[in-house]
Amino acid sequence: MPPPSERTEGFVTASDGVRIYYVEAGSGTDVLVAPAALYLEALLLDDLSDDTRVVFYDPRNRGRSDRADLANVSLDRQIDDLEDLRIELGLEEMTLLGWSAYGFEMAVYAVRYPERVNRLIQVSPIAPAASLLELYGDSRGNRVDQAAIEELDRKAESGAFDGIQDEYCRLRNALTNPANFVDPGLSERIPDDCIYPNEWPENRATYFRAYFATYGEFDLRQDLQDLEIPRLIIHGREDGIPLEGAMAWAEGYPEARLIVLSPSGHFPFIEQRDAVLAAIATFLRGEWPQNATLISSDNDRP
Hints:
The protein is an alpha/beta fold. The chain folds into 2 domains: 7-138 and 213-300, Rossmann fold, CATH 3.40.50; 139-202, no CATH class. 37% of the residues lie in helices and 16% in strands. Helix 2 (75-89) packs across helix 3. The longest helix has 15 residues, at 75-89. The model has no long low-confidence stretch (mean pLDDT 94).
């Protein structure tokens, strides 16, 4: 791992007054921007900022950013927040990296502002269409002890964790996080998000309900036909988000490539760290990683 690069952090005030936290490091003409700083800062910032300017930020109601009224939480609002961030930081073009649901969100931004995005990296993204979510579901729920979670939640509802919600948060994470990994022990490497009140179970759950409710019956596949920038999709074969969704981001698009990593669940940058860093570094140089697959038909599927 390279030595820590100098970091700067601050807040950008969105057009509705909500403050969006960001942290950045590195320098150069290439700029990589990604949401979910609360996780990615500790896991990726030092490595990726060796010769690239890297900006990570927390979406509203996440991590260190302000908690907005839920009426002001939406996909459109978060796209606007990223545009406010870009303008405030003086970024002309960006490589975007989106993990999980933010893999979809960054693609929406690229579709709306194609002149501002030169590359797109999607790590463990949700599917590009609502119909695919309904078809393939999410197997992650089968990997957790639902009875233990329900018992813990009952204790919280009874007031057992009043004033110590961070403890409740950590206990709940200990029950849910291992389901995201092939090797459950690696879940201990996830940064402690419970230090942020935004990430306490009730706050995070209400945020995601409000956020996902604004997606509607989405389908981005036709819009992707007109998106000419290179896209790299990285997905764990054992992710609870099925691989079929990741393949839908790549199949039939000449400017997209898919890397499938195994063993890996929903955190490939933890379970397959070296492979993910190498792929991103190659992609940022304007090249396709050797293990990136062009999927033009069913026969090409990994």
